[in-house]
Amino acid sequence: xxxxxxxxxxxxxxxxxxxxxxxxxxxxxxxxxxxxxxxxxxxxxxxxxxxxxxxxxxxxxxxxxxxxxxxxxxxxxxxxxxxxxxxxxxxxxxxxxxxxxxxxxxxxxxxxxxxxxxxxxxxxxxxxxxxxxxxxxxxxxxxxxxxxxxxxxxxxxxxxxxxxxxxxxxxxxxxxxxxxxxxxxxxxxxxxxxxxxxxxxxxxxxxxxxxxxxxxxxxxxxxxxxxxxxxxxxxxxxxxxxxxxxxxxxxx
Length: 252
What we know:
Shape: globular
Strand order of the largest sheet: 5-9-8-6-10
Radius of gyration: 17 Å
Mean pLDDT: 92
Order of helices and strands: EHEEEHEEEHHEHEHEH
Number of strands: 10
Largest sheet: 5 strands, mixed, barrel
Low-confidence stretches: none
Number of helices: 7
Strand content: 25-35%
Distance between the termini: 11 Å
């Protein structure tokens, strides 16, 4: 049975690809799917592309062509909730499309004809993912890129959060946009561009999924760390550590 690991960021994909053994490549739908072994598990690794359509296409191919039994999606996000800081990690409890609005025919955020706006991640997968994040990022844990964090001006130890992640087909980067999202969706922890599409496709097919995101910014006008350096030196390292741990701890 194959597990699917989907990365939104090329740097994360490269970090994970280094751990894939006995790999073979299948090209389909403009994507390269890499099948092999990772931490003793049969996996298929792929770069999703940016945005909800790209993520939905990738997920559909994984479920229909590769018969993936579960999907793990990784990437970065902007923090929304108070207390979340750059370098923290968010595990999705539920996901919602913040740009879905078919009102007045349907309530705002509700996906038409589904009767719901939020799509829950699989509880068992999310529990295991959260535990892996805590183990990998706790103070003193080996291999956490503390020097990179310090060099980027991130002085706090990374924290792990779990809750609502919202997705939309626009990059949220202003204080006004962030404030509007917090007002409309006060429970939202973070914002990104793919996760809720993955969630909807997995719900349609009845397949479990989980999502983990590293916070690369605060989704507002505040000063940012060097984004490219952060992705290379922090987010990609986090992702590799967490995925390794998650796979190794997964029951047979």
